[in-house]
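Exercise 7. Predict the structure of SH3b domain-containing protein from Streptomyces bangladeshensis.
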Amino acid sequence: MNKSMLAAALLISGVTLTAVTAGPAAQAAPRTAPVAAAQHRALVCTVNDNGVNFRGGPGTQYQVLGQVNRGQQFNVRSYEGSWVMGDIAGGRTGVWIHDAYLDC
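Solution. The predicted structure, encoded as tokens:
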């Protein structure tokens, strides 16, 4: 999954995005996209391969904490570059998986 697909999925799921411009007025009052409470849902992805490592941080330099297999659900909390941080359904929380191994 690429960054634009993840951003679109976050937007569709009801996550509020903030845009700030360089001007002083924008710094004083950032603009946010309105989101109705009924639209706010967690983004849930599915692991698309077997033996996928999940890590302690957003990169291969971080420790492998374990592995998940195809079909495992993953509740997204945030992302950094191509890495997605979230909670494994019924398992570890706050772990990182590369977006290539997630279908969202």
